[in-house]
Amino acid sequence: MKEIKLTSNIAEYTLEELCQEEQQLVSIANKSTFRSYAPYSKFCVGAALLLDDGTIIEGCNQENAAFGVTMCAERSALFAAGAQHPYKTPVKIAISARNEHGAYLDNPISPCGICRQAMIETETRYHNPLTILLIGRDKIYRIEGIKHLMPLSFTDF
Fold first, then answer.
1. Interstrand relation of 140-144 and 131-135 (parallel, antiparallel or unpaired)
2. What is the share, in percent, of the chain residues with pLDDT greater than 90?
3. For 44, 59, 123, 130, which has the most beta carbons within 10 A of its beta carbon?
4. Is residue 97 within a helix (H) or strand (E), and if so which, with residue range?
5. What was the pLDDT predicted at 67?
6. Per-residue pLDDT at 2
7. What share of the chain is helix, strand, coil (3-state, %, to 5)?
């Protein structure tokens, strides 16, 4: 038997340590949580996706009683960008969430597996890794490429 060790590189920042562009993405992702439609989970998620020309696409989760129809914030932003700006490369995405009491989460939120796969498809489509900002109240994780969150994926990129 051979053991394979997989590692992930995740940097932790405070908001003030991020560049101005990333601080703006965090702010927009936080605000996007207020457009969330989450009557079942009461878990409001927002995303802000930066394209290579400076365009920012917002996303938020949209729940449905038939949960399979529910759309996560990350995918709503990624798919809107693909539909509205198919020739612009996504470069960064910030993701934030508030709990059922309306408070932002203490710890950074991590995308679900479906959203991780959508990010892999996006990176593959544009041949460009996404910088991912996972937002918590006092700390933000910065990840260079979705493979650090999903190292065994369905792509060679």
1. antiparallel
2. 90
3. 59
4. strand 90-98
5. 83
6. 95
7. 30, 25, 45
Q: Are 15 and 140 in contact (CB under 8 A)?
A: yes
Task: Please identify which residue in the block is written with the tokens 């059922």.
Answer: 100
74 is catalytic: yes
CB atoms within 10 A of CB 2: 3
Retrieve residue 128's tokens. Answer: 């460009």
Please give the Cα distance from 30 to 114 (Å, whole number): 21
Catalytic residue among 22, 63, 74, 123: 74
Cα–Cα dist 93/91, whole Å = 7
First to last CA, the chain: 27
3-state DSSP call for residue 11?
Answer: strand
Q: Report pTM.
A: 0.95
Helix (H, G, I), strand (E, B), or coil: what is residue 143? strand
pLDDT in tens, 57-83: 999 999 999 988 899 999 999 999 999
Helix axes 113-126, 73-84, angle to 10 degrees: 30
Q: Do 15 and 23 form a contact (C-beta atoms < 8 A)? A: yes
Alpha carbons 57 and 84: distance in angstroms, whole number? 9
Which tokens is 119 given? Answer: 């990010």
CB atoms within 10 A of CB 23: 16
